[in-house]
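Hi everyone,

Forwarding the result from last night's run.
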Amino acid sequence: MVRVYNLAGDSIRLTNIKGSCGCANASVQRPVMHDSTPARIYLAVNTKHFTDSLNYIDYTIDHTGAGSPATYRVVVRLPKEQHK
């Protein structure tokens, strides 16, 4: 789970989120954020077909604030026994 705050004090709504590969999934659980109340995003990665050469996933987050879309990068590190 990722909590997202808006430091400017305005209310911003998350409208969509998408991972950079088919192994990534995301769900917006609380779409509205303020300076004291976070938006909540749950991220998921299916590592079954994940390769060692690809070690990150970029999530593109659309929102109603300035600078939309935003990108959130997740670095994936697999245990050594999964690299075989």
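The first strand starts at residue 2 and ends at 4.

Cheers,
N.
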